[in-house]
Amino acid sequence: METGKKRVLVGMSGGVDSSVCVELLRQAGYQVEGAVIRFSPAHDAAVAAACETAQQLQVPIQVLDCQEEFDQQVVLPFCADYCAGRTPNPCIICNPRVKFKALCRAADLAGIPYIATGHYARIAKNQGFFAVQKAVSEARDQSYMLYRLEQSVLSRLLLPLGSYEKAAIREMARQKQLSCADAPDSQEICFIPDKDYASYIARRGYSSPQGSFIAPDGRRLGPHKGIIHYTIGQRKGLGLSLNQPAFVRRICENGDILLGFSGQEYYCGITLTDPVVTLGPILPQSHYQIKVRSMAKPVGCTVTAVSEKQIQLVFDQPARAPAPGQSAVLYNGDLVAAGGFIAQLEE
């Protein structure tokens, strides 16, 4: 990275990844400044940790208060999606709507040309466009989480951790004697520390549609606790005895929950809505690798129909438990080509 002391604003969280990101960029010759975002009161500890690390690294840091944006753009849609039987991923919404928007805004106000984060991914330039590229570390790759970022963000984004394994990053932090060197990785839903989604949604004033469990053979088994207590693929906590393990196969608009047995969690295709295309155009009959969850192994797929509002595709082999509300991301090699929200499942 040739810099000439160019300035970069690093999004810090107090964790080991963003902290080492600061050090790697400084070693590469960048003039580094930090920013930590306060998304909600649940982030106060992260804000304090980021400020402590910034002091250790001797970089200036600013606190960006984005509570109102985060609540409106991420939390409320999260609650509404759960009440509609979908399984949202709030990080994917937060990245373009709040996190990276706030970093770019702060960088612009300070006259800083670059922004950076501790994500395990890379940025590639392809035919005049910028694309998210998979990390060198397959186990840590976070390219899936960044698929909705626009060109205006990708063109100024630095992701130095994309070329490293996690163990190497922790070792760098230990060598710098950073307080975060052995800190655990952050949780998935940052604004619900106890992971009790249902209670959180209820406290926010949302009511959960009621309905019945429907057995794989179509029998009505009795009422459930409300659909916010369940997600596609869930096996534990159903409170049922069907002589063999069952799981949540579908959550219906009327509140009913369809159950399935092992082997019934696979689907032949999906329809994506609100697509974002990075390497386009996406054409019918084109072939890609697709991830239907962040940690899912990619599978081959073929696009069968495409429009501005949706992409329909079939898998080369049935894929396990794609969930409405989650994202699916298309890859051309190791580059993110497109992605969208899973809306329909095809058996």
Can you put this structure into words, describing what you see?
- The chain is α/β, with parallel strands linked by helices and 347 residues long.
- Helix content is 24%, strand content 31%.
- The chain has seven helices and 17 strands.
- Strands 12-15-14-13-16-17 form a six-stranded antiparallel β-barrel. Strands 3-2-1-4-7 form a five-stranded parallel sheet, with helices on both faces. Strands 9-8-11-10 form a four-stranded mixed sheet, with no helix packed on it.
- The longest helix has 21 residues, at 90-110.
- The protein is globular.
- 41% of the residues are buried.
- The model has no long low-confidence stretch (mean pLDDT 92).
Strand content: 25-35%
**How big is the Rg?**
21 Å
User: Which outline best applies?
Assistant: globular
Strand order of the largest sheet: 12-15-14-13-16-17
Major pleated sheet: 6 strands, antiparallel, barrel
Spans of at least 5 consecutive residues with low confidence: none
Number of helices: 7
Mean pLDDT: 92
Termini Cα gap: 48 Å
Secondary-structure element order, N to C: EHEHEHHEEEHEHHEEEEEEEEEE
Helical proportion, percent range? 10-25%
Task: Please provide the count of β strands.
Answer: 17
Summarize the structure.
The chain has seven helices and 17 strands. It is an alpha/beta fold and 347 residues long.
